[in-house]
């Protein structure tokens, strides 16, 4: 696990970095977006993954600062990608921790970041887990409404894992469902997983939500999800999270 001191030093030395994992549009197999995932580079160049620092950062109150770096780098990357010939309509999704969601200045910070980089709000999607919604639903509702009013899309991450409440879909202005990878990894080998994913995709469609399947580790699953009418797919079988420079090359060769 990272220590608080290491995290503070990483912020100080600008060793916080986003990796980008492509999201494939299943209608035509084109990548029009990616998820930003935070990494910390040690002084020796090796990477610390979120599993080894997010809980620590939350405990010592550093998540808002780390989150601000991720938002800024994501907008910077978006502006680079949109200026290249590859992705004028490229979108990035950025994870928000519960604490960040409850920052009253969230919408104005997001608006300012978009503005600094000359981006429309539709370029950005914010991912939340249901955990972020349940502790103070009234405040969450207010923050999400402000973000929606800006034009930023809200995705419900890890959907179906843990204590999913379908009522969240009624109450909060969600526009994207990301089906948890625990369902996807059992696809085509477990009839219950097949039925659940097909059901979730159908439900999302009826609700006018986009559906993203996460954790695609086998190519065969891409076809299966296309047959189910799932909108987008993300996972190691498509590409692992990578630095911006690598994504530009990957997009170029995938075209
Ligand atoms: O990057 P990795 O695949 O190891 O991500 C592990 C977890 O860390 C993910 O579930 C994701 O929600 C979380 N995570 C990654 N990057 C960020 C980030 O920038 N902000 C927040 N709040 N969580 C992140
Ligand atoms: O919780 P969230 O969905 O934000 O986290 C995404 C996490 O999932 C990141 O840690 C990312 O590295 C990881 N991930 C992305 N694709 C795959 C995959 O195909 N298999 C597995 N096991 N993890 C994946
Ligand atoms: Mn996510
Ligand atoms: Na997820």
UniProtKB/TrEMBL annotation:
Domain of life: Bacteria
Record-annotated EAL domain positions: 1-255
Name used for this protein in its record: EAL domain-containing protein
Residues of the full protein shown: 389 to 643 of 649
């Amino acid at each position: 696990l990272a220590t608080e001191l290491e995290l503070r030093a990483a912020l100080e030395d600008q060793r916080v970095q986003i990796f980008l994992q492509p999201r494939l549009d299943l209608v035509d197999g084109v990548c029009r977006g990616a998820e930003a995932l935070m990494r910390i580079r040690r002084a020796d160049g090796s990477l610390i993954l979120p599993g080894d620092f997010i809980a620590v950062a939350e405990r010592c109150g550093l998540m808002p600062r780390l989150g601000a770096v991720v938002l800024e780098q994501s907008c910077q990357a978006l502006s680079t990608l949109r200026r290249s010939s590859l992705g004028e309509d490229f979108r990035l999704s950025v994870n928000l921790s519960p604490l960040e969601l409850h920052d009253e200045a969230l919408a104005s910070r997001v608006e300012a970041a978009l503005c600094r980089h000359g981006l429309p709000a539709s370029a950005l999607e914010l991912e939340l887990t249901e955990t972020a919604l349940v502790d103070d639903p009234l405040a969450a509702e207010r923050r999400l409404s402000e973000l929606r009013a800006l034009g930023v899309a809200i995705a419900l991450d890890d959907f179906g894992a843990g204590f999913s409440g379908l009522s969240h879909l009624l109450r909060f202005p969600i526009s994207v469902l990301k089906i948890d990878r625990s369902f996807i990894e059992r696809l085509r080998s477990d009839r219950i997983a097949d039925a659940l994913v097909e059901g979730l995709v159908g439900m999302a469609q009826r609700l006018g939500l986009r559906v993203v399947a996460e954790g695609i580790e086998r190519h065969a699953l891409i076809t299966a999800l296309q047959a189910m009418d799932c909108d987008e797919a993300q996972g190691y079988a498509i590409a692992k999270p990578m630095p911006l420079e690598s994504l530009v090359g990957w997009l170029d060769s995938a075209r």
